[in-house]
Design goal:
It is built from 19 helices and 2 strands. It has 432 residues and is mostly helical.
Length: 432
């Protein structure tokens, strides 16, 4: 068995790791100690919830607050934490805590999942990731506590604050407030809105960018090209999303800003999305499709992919080289970005078509929104998730899984070549 695992590619091992955690999580969530007395939880809903937690999506088949006991909610938070940090990162952290060293296979897996350039400094990186995560989540929990203590007893306020901070930083969108209300009761609470947005933002930009922000503070010119791209694109998307949502929906500026941040990665909502117009839902769908940034807890095609696509199109239109921030963009970047985007479009299109077949009673916009939310591991919904049939739930589970791993990673699971050993003459093909 050990030899068989060692022979597998990093992508396959990562995929197997996520699948194993999802299955274990589905069992933990359906245990009698995890489910409230008098509540019947079907295994498909337990599996759906576990997948949504590990893939840090936040789509819910059952309400977490009404269904699970404090023990079940603890298991749910643990699955969110593992999913957000990554199975390999958590495993590496446990190995280091036991005083053991990471082997080359473990280092390679961490490098693959964290988008690192080399194996150098991996131990230091893992320690900084874990420390950064716990510090930010602790600060978020403390700030959230001052809001929740106004409405809940001390012990419950502490539990909700801790859960909310973990869910927000890991961009999962889960809540344990009950009654399928998410954060709607706090739509005008500036403190909780801003704290949640802050947690979502830092969880969505990636640990490499967070490290640079800490190292160089506000000296933007010292940042790497990657950090500049991530922060610039994220900032533009937040501003544009806020303006478009304010123009299309009857929401406050705070509500528009919150959903512009949340739609890209997290899935929290302060307004019922079932009341949004098709124009507003289309804006949210576009934001969900783009998603977070590489090396983060979020999904989607990623901000850097969008940036490279725009620069590639600009280069083709102007017949100039691809460059940004006084740096040339790697030649293979546009090809990779194009492949990722095409695979994502194909997945969302096929998923929407299948969802429309499995659930003929829902509108095409709702189907597209639900599938894109699953792919982007966002968790926003127009309210149809709880009423989906088994087939539609299994479809959503598959899309969440692919969205968390990345379409290119999944595509490479079945066939991977180390390169061509034969050269061919270059042909000619007309484009455009």
């Amino acid at each position: 068995m050990k030899k068989l695992l060692q022979a597998q590619s990093p992508a396959r091992l990562i995929s197997l790791g996520f699948a194993a955690v999802i299955l274990i999580g589905s069992v933990l969530l359906i245990l009698p100690c995890s489910v409230r007395e008098g509540v019947e939880l079907k295994y498909i809903d337990s599996l759906y919830t576990s997948t949504s937690a590990v893939c840090v999506t936040g789509l819910i088949a059952v309400d977490a607050g009404d269904t699970f006991t404090p023990i079940g909610q603890f298991f749910l938070a643990l699955l969110i934490q593992i999913g957000g940090l990554g199975v390999t990162s958590i495993g590496a952290g446990v190995i280091l805590a036991m005083g053991r060293k990471l082997d080359l296979k473990s280092r390679r897996l961490i490098r693959e999942t964290s988008n690192l350039d080399s194996n150098k400094g991996i131990v230091r990186f893992i320690k900084s990731v874990l420390l950064t995560t716990f510090i930010i989540e602790f600060i978020g929990a403390v700030l959230s506590f001052f809001v929740f203590i106004q409405d809940y007893p001390l012990q419950k306020a502490i539990g909700i604050s801790l859960f909310h901070s973990v869910a927000a930083f890991n961009n999962s969108g889960f809540d344990i407030l009950g009654n399928l209300q998410n954060l709607i009761p706090y739509q005008n609470n500036i403190m909780l809105n801003l704290v949640t947005c802050g947690l979502i933002f830092f969880g969505g930009i990636g640990f490499l960018v967070i490290r640079e922000m800490w190292q160089y503070r506000l000296s933007f010119r010292k940042y790497s090209m990657h950090a500049k791209v991530v922060l610039s694109v994220s900032g533009v998307l937040i501003i544009v999303g806020t303006l478009l949502l304010k123009l299309t929906e009857n929401v406050t500026w705070l509500g528009a800003f919150f959903h512009s941040v949340s739609a890209r990665t997290a899935g929290f909502s302060t307004y019922p999305l079932g009341t949004f117009s098709n124009a507003g839902l289309l804006v949210l769908t576009a934001l969900m499709f783009i998603g977070a940034s590489p090396g983060s807890t979020g999904g989607g095609i990623k901000t850097s992919t969008l940036f490279v696509l725009i620069q590639g199109i600009k280069s083709a239109a102007t017949n100039r080289s691809e460059k940004a921030f006084h740096n040339a963009i790697p030649k293979d970047a546009f090809r990779k970005a194009s492949v990722i985007t095409l695979l994502a479009v194909a997945l969302v299109s096929a998923g929407t078509w299948l969802m429309a077949i499995l659930e003929p009673g829902i509108s095409l916009m709702d189907a597209l929104f639900e599938v894109t939310s699953a792919f982007g591991t966002v968790g926003l919904s127009t309210g149809i998730t709880t009423d989906l049939g088994v087939g539609a739930k299994l479809l959503s589970i598959s899309i969440m899984y692919i969205g968390r791993l990345g379409p290119l990673t999944v595509a490479s699971l079945w066939y991977f070549s180390r390169g061509e050993h034969i050269s061919f003459p270059e042909g000619n093909i007309s484009i455009g």
